Amino acid sequence: MTLKAYDGRDLNGFVYVNGKAGEVEEAPSERYMGVLIKGALAAGLKKEYIEGTLRKIPTYVPPRKFCKLFF
Hints:
Helix content is 37%, strand content 8%.
């Protein structure tokens, strides 16, 4: 599949998807996005990309009822 690099280049690649085709996509967790952003900073990706794209991705917020059960 064709992927778009943060600097706009097209790259050939592949992705792994956990789930069945046609399922609704869920937002990533806040923890996952933190790890991704930390890696992007360590790799020297452009701050404009990190701030303008990565930090704007909505994250999953578990239902309050779930949090009370486990925390």
